[in-house]
Design goal:
single chain, 435 residues, alpha/beta, Aspartate Aminotransferase, domain 1, Aspartate Aminotransferase, domain 2, 7-stranded mixed beta sheet, 5-stranded antiparallel beta sheet, 19% strand
Length: 435
C-alpha cells in the first residue's frame, strides 16, 4: 500500500530515497491538484504557475475539453500500435498538422512520444533524404537528453556532464546574441567557417535550430539570421529542421515560432504543448523529404497513442475556437509591459527583456564602467526562491543561469496573470534589495 504523506518535506524525503540524484527538480514542492494557471501543493498552498510544465500545458492544467476528448477515446480503445492497426485520430492529426506547416507543396507527419524522439527521427529523415551524415546545431540549443540528442544540445552543464563521448558528424555553430556581442552576421560567418575548418558543406544533411532558444536563454533567432541560414542551406542542398518543441503550438503568438521570420523549414519537430499534458511528439515535413525513409524505418510502439492523439486534436480545436494566437499576443503585450517596468526600476541589474508572444525572458547581470554586462546567476536563483515563497512558480535558463523565462499557460486569465506579474516584480525588488 502506498504510504500517504501530507507535507512537501515528507514527500521529498521519500523522493530522495527512491530516485537517483540525476533526476533534478526546480522547486521543492509536490503538486496535489491544478487548474488552468494555478497549482496547489500537498500542504494546500496555492501557486500561480508561470512554468506550465515547461510549456506543455499551453491550454492550461486540466483543460476540460482535453480531458473530455481523452475520456471519449478511452471508451473505444487505448492502444493498438499504429504500425499494427491504424486509427482515425492519428490520421486526422497528421492531416491537420500538415495543413499548418508553412511553405508550398504537400506535407506528411508521423508521431512519437517525446521531443527527443522527434528530433532523433527528424535527423534520420534528413540523412535518408540527403544521403549525407553531417548535422549542424547551434551553441546554446537544447534538443534532448538521449545520447544522440545530447550531441546536438549546445549546453554542457548539467546535461552533458559525464555522459560522453557523443555521436560523430555533429557540429555546432554560434547562435546570434547581440547583447553579448554576437550579431546575426557574425553567426552566419560562423556557419560558413564550419565549412572551412570542420566539415565540407556537401556532407551536411541538415541544420537543426530552435526559432527561439529555450534552455539557451529564450533567445529569438533574428529573422535576418534565419533568412541567411535558408540561403546557405539552399545553396548547398542542406535541409533546415526547426525544433519547435518549446516554441510551437501558439507559444510565440503564431502556431510555429519560425513563422515570425517568413522562413519555411523542411522539417519541424513538435512535442510539449501539442498534447495538452499528454505525451505526444510530431515530425512534420515536406512530403518528398519525409518519404525518403524505407517502410518500417520510422515508428515506435507507443508513438501517436490514441489517447494522446485525441488530446492533441482537442488542443488544435482550442487553438481555433478560442483564437489562441490572438489571445497570446494580448497576453504577451501585458507581460512585456510589466517586464519593461521591472527593467526600468533596476537599470543596473536588468540587462535585457526579450522574447515573442508569451515566451518572454528577463536577463540579469551587473554592468561595469565600460557598459559591459556580467551574468548574475546568483541573483536569479534568489529571485526564483523569493517568487516561490510568495506563491509564483518560475524557472531560470541560459548558459549562466541568469535569465528568468516566463511561460504561463496560454489560457491564463487576466486577473491571475496580473497577480503573477505583480508577484514577480515584488520578488525582483526583494532579491535585489537583499543582494
Amino acid at each position: 500500500m502506498t504510504q500517504q504523506t501530507t507535507t512537501n518535506a515528507d514527500q521529498l524525503a521519500r523522493r530522495a530515497a527512491a530516485l537517483p540524484r540525476g533526476v533534478g527538480q526546480a522547486h521543492p514542492v509536490v503538486a496535489q491538484r491544478a487548474l488552468n494557471a494555478e497549482v496547489w501543493d500537498v500542504e494546500g498552498k496555492r501557486y500561480i504557475d508561470f512554468v506550465a510544465g515547461i510549456a506543455v500545458v499551453n491550454t492550461g492544467h486540466n483543460n476540460p475539453r482535453v480531458l473530455a476528448a481523452v475520456q471519449e477515446q478511452m471508451q473505444h480503445f487505448t492502444h493498438t500500435c499504429f504500425q499494427v492497426l491504424a486509427y482515425d485520430g492519428y490520421i486526422t492529426l497528421a492531416e491537420k498538422l500538415n495543413a499548418r506547416m508553412p511553405g508550398p507543396g504537400a506535407k506528411k507527419s508521423f508521431f512519437m512520444n517525446s521531443g527527443a524522439e522527434a528530433v532523433e527521427n527528424a535527423i534520420k529523415v534528413a540523412r535518408a533524404a540527403t544521403g549525407r551524415p553531417g548535422i549542424i546545431a547551434f551553441n546554446g540549443g537544447f534538443h534532448g537528453r538521449t545520447m544522440f540528442t545530447l550531441g546536438l544540445t549546445g549546453k554542457v552543464d548539467p546535461y552533458k556532464i559525464g555522459f560522453g563521448p557523443f555521436s560523430a558528424d555533429v557540429y555546432h555553430a554560434p547562435f546570434p546574441n547581440p547583447l553579448h556581442g554576437l550579431s546575426a552576421e557574425d553567426a552566419l560567418k560562423g556557419v560558413e567557417a564550419l565549412f572551412k575548418f570542420d566539415i565540407e558543406a556537401s556532407r551536411v544533411a541538415a541544420f537543426i535550430i530552435e526559432p527561439v532558444q529555450g534552455e539557451g536563454g529564450y533567445l529569438p533567432a533574428p529573422a535576418p539570421f534565419l533568412r541567411g541560414l535558408r540561403e546557405i542551406a539552399d545553396r548547398h542542398g542542406i535541409l533546415i529542421i526547426a525544433d519547435e518543441i518549446q516554441s510551437g503550438v501558439c507559444r510565440t503568438g503564431k502556431f510555429y515560432g519560425i513563422e515570425h521570420s517568413g522562413v519555411a523549414p523542411d522539417i519541424i519537430t513538435m512535442a510539449k504543448g501539442l498534447g495538452g499534458g499528454f505525451p505526444i511528439a510530431a515530425v512534420v515535413g515536406r512530403a518528398e523529404v519525409m518519404d525518403a525513409a524505407a517502410p518500417g524505418g520510422l515508428g515506435g510502439t507507443y508513438g501517436g497513442n490514441p489517447l494522446s492523439c485525441a488530446a492533441a486534436l482537442a488542443v488544435l480545436d482550442i487553438v481555433e475556437d478560442e483564437q489562441l494566437n490572438e489571445k497570446v499576443q494580448a497576453t504577451g503585450r501585458t507581460m512585456l509591459a510589466k517586464l519593461d517596468e521591472i527593467a526600468a526600476a533596476h537599470p543596473d541589474r536588468v540587462a535585457e527583456v526579450r522574447g515573442l508572444g508569451a515566451m518572454l525572458a528577463i536577463e540579469f547581470g551587473t554592468r561595469d564602467a565600460d557598459g559591459h554586462w556580467t551574468p548574475d546567476g546568483a541573483l536569479v536563483k534568489a529571485i526564483v526562491a523569493e517568487a516561490r515563497a510568495r506563491g509564483l512558480l518560475i524557472l531560470s535558463c541560459g548558459p549562466y543561469g541568469n535569465v528568468i523565462r516566463l511561460m504561463p499557460p496560454l489560457t491564463v486569465g487576466e486577473a491571475v496573470l496580473a497577480e503573477g506579474l505583480d508577484l514577480l516584480a515584488a520578488s525582483v525588488d526583494a532579491a535585489i534589495a537583499a543582494a
